[in-house]
Specification:
This protein is 46% helix and 13% strand. It is globular, with a radius of gyration of 30 Å. The protein contains 35 helices and 22 strands. By secondary structure, it is an alpha/beta fold. It has a six-stranded mixed sheet with strand order 1-4-5-6-7-8, sandwiched between helices.
C-alpha cells in the first residue's frame, strides 16, 4: 500500500473545507492575493459602503488601505487587524473599514486557497492558506505521512526568515500536520516547538487526524471565535499567544454560567497549565458582558496580588486595577473600574469593618463576578463566608490545581461544597501527555540510618550530599533548586551547616517569622507543625541570613523591608535578568512551595513531611516546560514519602497508575539506553565509520540514530545512580564524546547559515521530496554545557606555556573543547585568533603577564579588547558592503544586547532612506539580518 502523498493530503483538506462552506479561490501570486483581498473587503464592508451609496473602494482608496496595513511590526499588524480603519474618501467622507468582525465571529468571509507563490529572499510556495475577509490569517503546512511533524514547524520558521512579508504578516495561526498528527500555534516566530498544541474536545480527547482536526478547529464559527476572542496580544513580550483547548473550554464554561445562570463553579486545571492566562481571558470576556457590573480577581497572598497584577498588565496594560490597601479597594469598587485584583484579606476587611462596609453598601447588590485564585487554600474559613454574605448578588468561580476532596478535606469542607460543581478538568496526567507540563523524577536518598530527623550528623550528611549533587541535578547551575525543610528552626540550622561547608554555589533562605506570618498548615497542606516558634530570635536569625545575602549580591535588605527581599529572591530564582546574579539554592519552609512559577527551577530537595495538595503543589514548582534539556522535575526526598506521593498522585490525577506522572526507575532507563547503544554500535562500530558516509541519506540516518542516544543520555545522566564511569551502559562516556564530535561536524554546518547568504530565488521543490538534513531538529541544546563559558576558556588559556613541549597539544585541546560544544563552536575561530596574537606571536609578554597576581584579570581585559576590535571590524565590513552607517548597526546591536530581542525596524528605517524599491529593500533586510545574527552569535559571551 502506497503512502499518502502531500498532494493527496492537501486535496483532501481542501475538499473537507469546501464541504464546510469555505469558498475555494485560486491565487497564484501576490498580485492575485491583493485583488482578491479588495473584493472580499468590499463584501465584508458592504453595509458601510452602502451607507455612502457605494459597492466598492476606488483604486486610490484601496492603495491607502494597503499602505496603512503595510506599516509596523507583526505585533502592531495584529492590532490593526482588530481595529477599525478610518478611510477618508476623495469627497470628504469617512468610511470605517473593518478587517475582522470579532463580536459576530461567524459573520466573516471564509476562503481557502493553496500553492500561493511568494517571492522573498527565496521563492516559496505555501501549502494551504485560509483567508478571512481576504487576509491570509491561517497558514497550514502539510507533510506526507511518516515525516516528523517538527519538519513542518521548522519549515515555517525558515519561511519567517526568507519569505513572509506583506499581507502574510497578518497570519494569526499556523497549523502543521502529517495527516495523523496535527497541531496549531500562534504566529510567534521562534516560540519553540513545545508551544504547539493539539486541539481536543472538552473532555481532553485529542483530534490528531487532519480530517477530525479540520471538522472541529477549522469549522468557520469556531475558527472565527478563536481568532476574534482567544488570541491574546501579549504587550509585555510584544507577541501573539493563543489559548490551548482546555483554556478555551474553561473560559467558555464560565461565560455560559454567567450568561445563563447564577450558579457558581470551579475549574480544576493542574498546576503549571497556564491558569493566569485562562483567568485573565475569563475576566476580560466576562467584564465585556452588559449585565456584569464588576469582575474581581481574588488572590490569597500579597505577593500573588502584585505578581498577578504584573502578569495581567503584560497581557494588556491598563486592563485591570490593583489595590494597594483596603482604602484603594473601596475606591475601586465605587469607580468605573471593570476588573479589579485584590486579596481576600483586603476584601474581608472591606466587608467586615463598618468604616469600609458603609462606604460600599450601595454596591453590595450589584452583579459582581468573583474569580478566586488557588481556591484550595484560603476559602474555607469565616472570611469567605463574610464576603459571600455581604455581596448577595455575587457569582463566584474558583481555579485550582489541587481541589479539596473528602480525603484531604479541611474542617470537613470540600471545594465542591464551597464553590459548586467542577466546570472543567485538565489533570496532571493530561498535561504531561500533552507536554504542557513535565513529569517528576522522584528519588529517595539512602544515607545514614539515623532516624532522628534533627540529628546534626544526619543534617550535615544531607547538606554535603546536596552540595555534591547540585551540579549534576541542575546541569552545572543552568537551573536552580529549592530545599524544603520541616520548620524554621531546622532551616536556620541547615543554613548554618551549609555556610560552614563554604559552598561554591550561592545559597539563600526565606521564611515567615512571627511578625510576618500569614498562613497555617491546614490551608497549605504542608504539615510544618508550628509555622514559626515564638522565639524572638528568629527575626535576628533572618536578618543574619539577609546580611549574607546583601554581601553576596550588593543589596541592603532588612527585616523591615522583608517584601522587597522576598521579591528579589523571586527574581534571582527565575534567572530572567542577564545582569542579575542568580540564587542557586534557596532554603524554604512554606514560601515558594505554592504559587512560585519559574521555568529555570528543576530540582526540589525535601526534608519535610508533605501530603496531598501540599505535596503536589510543592513538586509542581519544578515541572514547567522549558527546553529539551529539562525533561522532568527532579525531586530528591530525604524522608520516606513514597506512600504519600502515590496517594497524592492517585487523588489528583484520577488514576491508579502513578507511572503516568512519575518517571520510571533508573534500571528501566538504563536498559533502554543499553539497547539503543547496542543497535547503534552494530551499525556504526567506530567513530571513523562516520567518515565513510557519503550520501545525505546515510548521514541523516546516522544523525537520527545518534539523536536518540543524545536524548536518552540527557535523561539518564540526571539519575543519582548514573555514573559516567560505568562500563555497563553499552557506550562509554569517551565513545559518546567521540561520536558527538562527528555528529557536530555534520550538523552544525546545517545549523549555521553562511555569513553571506545567497539572495537568488530558488526553484520550488516538487511534492514528496525526501526530507534532508536541514529538516531535522538536532537537539543541540542538549550538547551545550554551561561550564564551557568565557571564564573556563580563559582559565585554559592562562595555563598555557608556549615554551613547553606539550604546548601545541594543549592549545589544540582548547579549540577542540570549544568545537565539541554546540554553543561555543562558532567562537572557536575567534579564540584561535586571540591565542595566535596574544600567545603565539607575543610569547615573552604573555609569560611575563602570567606571573602577575592579577594575570587572569589582565588576560580577560585583553580578550575583551580583542573581541571588541574584531566585532567592530565585522560591523564595519557589513556597513561597507551594504552602504549603511555604522552607527545604525551599532544602535541595533546595543538594543539587542539590552532587550535580547531582534528589532528589524531599526534596519528597515535606514533602508527606506536608500530608496531601493520594495523587493530590493526586503532582500537587503534579510541579508543584513542574517549577518547581524552571525555577529551576535560569534561575539556575544555569557
Amino acid at each position: 500500500m502506497s503512502i499518502q502523498s502531500e498532494a493527496a493530503l492537501e486535496a483532501g483538506l481542501i475538499a473537507t473545507l469546501q464541504q464546510m462552506d469555505y469558498e475555494y479561490v485560486q491565487i497564484a501570486e501576490e498580485d492575485n492575493l491583493q485583488a482578491n483581498f479588495k473584493r472580499q473587503l468590499e463584501i465584508h464592508n458592504r453595509k458601510r459602503l452602502a451607507e455612502h451609496g457605494r459597492t466598492e473602494f476606488t483604486d486610490e482608496e484601496f492603495d491607502k488601505i494597503l499602505i496603512y496595513l503595510e506599516g509596523g511590526t507583526r505585533f502592531e499588524k495584529a492590532k490593526k487587524l482588530r481595529d477599525l480603519y478610518p478611510l477618508d474618501t476623495a469627497d470628504g467622507k469617512r468610511i470605517w473599514v473593518e478587517f475582522l468582525n470579532r463580536q459576530q465571529w461567524c459573520q466573516n468571509e471564509f476562503q481557502v486557497s493553496n500553492q500561493i507563490t511568494v517571492e522573498g529572499r527565496k521563492k516559496c510556495r505555501y501549502d494551504v492558506t485560509i483567508l478571512i475577509n481576504g487576509l491570509p490569517l491561517v497558514q497550514i503546512e502539510l507533510k506526507r505521512r511518516g515525516v516528523e511533524l517538527r519538519v513542518a514547524y521548522d519549515q515555517i520558521q525558515r519561511y519567517h526568515k526568507t519569505s513572509y512579508h506583506g499581507l502574510f504578516d497578518y497570519i494569526q495561526l499556523f497549523v502543521i500536520s502529517n495527516g495523523v498528527n496535527t497541531r496549531y500555534f500562534a504566529n510567534n516566530p521562534n516560540g519553540g516547538y513545545k508551544f504547539t498544541f493539539n486541539w481536543t474536545d472538552a473532555a481532553n480527547v485529542p483530534f490528531n487526524e487532519l480530517d477530525k482536526f479540520a471538522a472541529a478547529f477549522l469549522e468557520k464559527c469556531t475558527l472565527g471565535k478563536i481568532i476574534g476572542k482567544y488570541i491574546v496580544l501579549h504587550e509585555g513580550d510584544k507577541c501573539l499567544m493563543v489559548l490551548r483547548p482546555y483554556q478555551f473550554y474553561a473560559v467558555e464554561k464560565i461565560l455560559d454560567k454567567v450568561k445563563n445562570s447564577n450558579d457558581n463553579g470551579y475549574i480544576w486545571h493542574t498546576t503549571g497549565a497556564g491558569k493566569t492566562l485562562t483567568s485573565f481571558k475569563a475576566a476580560q470576556l466576562v467584564s465585556e458582558l452588559d449585565d456584569v457590573d464588576k469582575v474581581m480577581f481574588v488572590v490569597d497572598r500579597h505577593d500573588l496580588d502584585t505578581q498577578t497584577q504584573s502578569e495581567y498588565e503584560a497581557f494588556e496594560p491598563g486592563a485591570v486595577d490593583g489595590t494597594d490597601n483596603t482604602d484603594e479597594l473601596v475606591k475601586r469598587l465605587h469607580s468605573n473600574s471593570k476588573i479589579i485584583i485584590t486579596t481576600i484579606q483586603k476584601l474581608n476587611a472591606a466587608v467586615s469593618k463598618t468604616w469600609y462596609s458603609n462606604k460600599i453598601e450601595a454596591i453590595r447588590h450589584s452583579r459582581i463576578v468573583m474569580i478566586f485564585d488557588e481556591c484550595h487554600r484560603s476559602h474555607f474559613g469565616e472570611s469567605h463566608k463574610r464576603i459571600m454574605k455581604f455581596f448577595d448578588n455575587a457569582q463566584v468561580f474558583g481555579f485550582t490545581g489541587t481541589p479539596i476532596f473528602t480525603e484531604n478535606a479541611i474542617n470537613g469542607h470540600t471545594t465542591k461544597e464551597i464553590f459548586g460543581n467542577c466546570l472543567h478538568q485538565y489533570l496532571i496526567k493530561d498535561a504531561i501527555a500533552d507536554e504542557n507540563v513535565l513529569g517528576f523524577l522522584v528519588e529517595y536518598y539512602h544515607g545514614s540510618e539515623e532516624v532522628e530527623k534533627g540529628n546534626a550528623n544526619r543534617m550535615e550528611e544531607i547538606a554535603k550530599f546536596i552540595l555534591n549533587n547540585f551540579n549534576k541535578s541542575t546541569f552545572d547551575g543552568e537551573f536552580d533548586a529549592l530545599f524544603a525543610v520541616q520548620s524554621v528552626p531546622m532551616l536556620i540550622r541547615y543554613y548554618k551547616i551549609f555556610k560552614s561547608l563554604k559552598p561554591k554555589i550561592r545559597i539563600g533562605a526565606v521564611f515567615t517569622y512571627a511578625a510576618n506570618s500569614s498562613q497555617d498548615d491546614e490551608q497549605t497542606g504542608m504539615n510544618t507543625g508550628q509555622y514559626v516558634s515564638e522565639s524572638t530570635g528568629e527575626a535576628d536569625e533572618l536578618q543574619a541570613i539577609m546580611d549574607d545575602y546583601n554581601e553576596m549580591f550588593g543589596t541592603a535588605f532588612t527585616t523591615e523591608n522583608f517584601r522587597a527581599y522576598y521579591d528579589d529572591i523571586n527574581l534571582r530564582m527565575k534567572k530572567k535578568k542577564a545582569d542579575m546574579k542568580p540564587l542557586d539554592l534557596c532554603l524554604v519552609v512554606g514560601m515558594f512551595l505554592t504559587g512560585f512559577d519559574s521555568k529555570k527551577l528543576n530540582t526540589l530537595y525535601v526534608d519535610k513531611n508533605l501530603v496531598y495538595h501540599g505535596l503536589l503543589q510543592a513538586f509542581s514548582r519544578t515541572n514547567r516546560v522549558l527546553n529539551e534539556k529539562k525533561r522532568f522535575g527532579k525531586i530528591i526526598c530525604f524522608r520516606d514519602l513514597k506512600s504519600n506521593v502515590d496517594t497524592a498522585i492517585r487523588l489528583f490525577s484520577n488514576s491508579n497508575n502513578p507511572e503516568e506522572i512519575i518517571r520510571p526507575p533508573f534500571e528501566e532507563v538504563k536498559k533502554e539506553y543499553q539497547q539503543l547503544a547496542t543497535d547503534f554500535l552494530r551499525k556504526y562500530p567506530e567513530p571513523s565509520s562516520i567518515d565513510l558516509l557519503q550520501s545525505e541519506k546515510d548521514k541523516k540516518d546516522f544523525v537520527l540514530a545518534f539523536r536518540d542516544i543524545i536524548r536518552k543520555h540527557a535523561e539518564i545522566q540526571i539519575y543519582e545512580d548514573y555514573s559516567e564511569d560505568a562500563d555497563d551502559l553499552g557506550l562509554t562516556e569517551q565513545q559518546f564524546n567521540d561520536y558527538k564530535s562527528k555528529y557536530l561536524d555534520i550538523t552544525v554546518g546545517f545549523i549555521e547559515p553562511p555569513v553571506y547568504p545567497s539572495v537568488v530565488a530558488e526553484d520550488l521543490a516538487p511534492y514528496g521530496d525526501e526530507q534532508g538534513l536541514e529538516d531535522i531538529d538536532f537537539c543541540l541544546e542538549l550538547l551545550h554545557s554551561d561550564i564551557i563559558n568565557v571564564a573556563y576558556i580563559l582559565e585554559l588559556i592562562a595555563n598555557l606555556d608556549p615554551y613547553s613541549t606539550d604546548y601545541a597539544e594543549r592549545r589544540k585541546n582548547i579549540i577542540d573543547t570549544m568545537i565539541k560544544d554546540a554553543e561555543m563552536r562558532n567562537k572557536a575561530k575567534l579564540i584561535d585568533g586571540f591565542i595566535k596574537k596574544n600567545v603565539d606571536e607575543d610569547k615573552e609578554n604573555f609569560m611575563m603577564q602570567r606571573q602577575k597576581a592579577d594575570g587572569t584579570n589582565e588576560l580577560e581585559e585583553r580578550l575583551n579588547r580583542y573581541i571588541s576590535a574584531e566585532r567592530e571590524k565585522a560591523v564595519n565590513s557589513l556597513a561597507q558592503d551594504e552602504g549603511l552607517a555604522t552607527d545604525v548597526l551599532d544602535h541595533y546591536l546595543k538594543e539587542y544586547d539590552y532587550l535580547q530581542k531582534e528589532q528589524p525596524e531599526i534596519i528597515q528605517k535606514a533602508l527606506k532612506e536608500k530608496h531601493l524599491g520594495l523587493i530590493k529593500t526586503r532582500k537587503a533586510l534579510t541579508r543584513i539580518m542574517d549577518r547581524l545574527r552571525s555577529i551576535i552569535r560569534t561575539f556575544s559571551w555569557k
